[in-house]
Amino acid sequence: MKALPRLFCFSLLALALYPGHALAQRSNEADLQQQMSPEQFRAAGLDKLSPAELAALNAWLQGRVSQATEQVREQAMEAGRQEVIVRNRGFLSFGSDEPIVAVLPGQFSGFAKRRQYHLDNGQVWEQTDDAQLNGARGNDRHVRITPGLMGVWHLQVDGYNTRAKVRRVK
């Protein structure tokens, strides 16, 4: 039975000394005495702490660092998720059901099948139906692209009731 505790202690020691081990790196990151120069450690008054008090302070600091790291990780993941949703809106039924509101820069001269509409947000949509909007003219027109059933999207130019079925190509 004595061999098992010795083997266990030896294994823990080996893990703690192995520089690539995450647990060893984590405890080193939060250990104030290792992170500060001796002058900084004394100037902060930390040399007056008992080993138990210093260990408690290091444990508290490690917990705060871990908590802050987790919050930053979660915020970064959510920001990345939102970026993917915004960038891919219009491809299939990806993202929200909210309409896409944008400006169609340059001259607008009505609807036509297979016409591409380049929006100011970088998206490019192509008309897939035969909808027409004869006589419609204007520059820098505001448009709304709304999702419909089964992945269909509709483009509508402000000031007109006619909608054209479109699909996102870029």
From TrEMBL:
Keywords: Signal. It comes from the Bacteria. Residues 1-24 form the signal peptide. This is Secreted protein.
